[in-house]
Amino acid sequence: MFNVHVHLTDLSAIVPNLLANTTVNSPNITKGSTSVGKFDWSTVSDHCSKEYKTYDIVVAADPLYSPQHPAWLVAAIDHVLKQNPGARVVIELPLREAYGPEIAELKVRMEGLDLAVLAEGTESGIEDWEDNHPGNERTQVMCWWAVWQCIPSGISPTKDHALDVAAWCGSE
Q1: Residue 85 in 3-state DSSP?
Q2: The pTM is what?
Q3: How far is CA 7 from CA 22, 62, 69, 100, in A?
Q4: pLDDT score of 167 more than 50
Q5: What is the sign, positive or negative, of the torsion defined by CA atoms of 76, 58, 113, 69?
Q6: How many Å apart are CA 117 and CA 147, to the nearest integer?
Q7: Would you state the pLDDT for residue 4?
Q8: Residue 40 phi, psi dihedral angles, 5° rounding
């Protein structure tokens, strides 16, 4: 794939799905490798001491579906992301109206880690929440993505955000 090792994590209940996905996709990985592990954001310090500040890139897909998730996700990122200008965080999430406050909180907390949006945008995705597509009818959902970069201490980012997530989701 990219000639790197990719470590995939999720809650214990989701790990079997990650393992199945890596097995199905293993023929596409011609360079590099993958591993799968458990990671509960609510207990970051309990099981991540060996992973402290070890990752150059952290990717989070559809990570917000509870009021606690912005704080937990940002604490997890803070724990595992290397603190250097080359470090990046990539987040993509559906812009669900019910989670507007969590999305806005996520952005504020990320900026509190001295991370700034390097690039962002929106794209159409397929809603995968069962409650949102009765009878197996899949619907489209607008998704927001952002690439965050570590900002050296004392430097203020000047990039204007291309999308005001709070306004998009109807939050104040």
Answers
A1: coil
A2: 0.79
A3: 11, 17, 20, 29
A4: no
A5: negative
A6: 6
A7: 83
A8: -105, 110
